[in-house]
Design goal:
26% of the residues lie in helices and 19% in strands. It has 6 helices and 9 strands. The longest helix is centred in the first third of the chain and has 16 residues, at 26-41.
Length: 231
Amino acid sequence: MRTKFAGFFLMIFLSGLCFGEGDFVLGEKIGETLDFELDSSFYVTEISDSLFAKMWGKSYKENCTIPRSELRYLHLLHKTLDGSTLEGELVCNVKIADVLLGIFKDLYVANYPIEKIRLVDEYDADDEKSMSDNNSSCFNFRFISYTTTVSKHGAGLAVDINPLYNPYYKTVNGKPNIEPFNGAAYLDRTKNFPYKIDHNDLAYKLFTEAGFEWGGDWKGVKDWQHFEYLE
């Protein structure tokens, strides 16, 4: 699913240059191409049997308390740091499916860089592996540690964006707990580096305006990658 579209849409753009006088306005043609790209590449579906088979025993564990019917598959496009266009996939709760689709559309149109958006099942639902590969993701069923409460990710109501560069940090028994472990270089939020999320960041603005809480604003614990929906 990691397909580059740049060549395809360049061909469409160039074909639009070959027109007679008065046929159409170039700006309108570009707009029509972008609208087609968004309509055809950003969509929501129910969880298919083939997808559920991939999720079973991984993100959708045997003790999952979230019905399959309450989850949705999102197909989208995203830009990388070098400007390439890639396909992305997410599974989320039906409650936020359309909201997320709109946010990722806005991020894509704004050329906001996201390195990877792959199903966490490609990493055997191992959060550390997914985060250390800077993979942005949503649903992965689990309980909050030492409780019987389903986590926001376990309910498909939280999204992690560019997690390697926006790690989770908490002091446990006087020792730092960093997730992913290779994100330690990005704990100093006074530095400037690619993919950094702060209050000036577009992802922060779009998610919080849509009713999400940012983990970077938490006290004691910092989770700069994390946006969770406030029900």
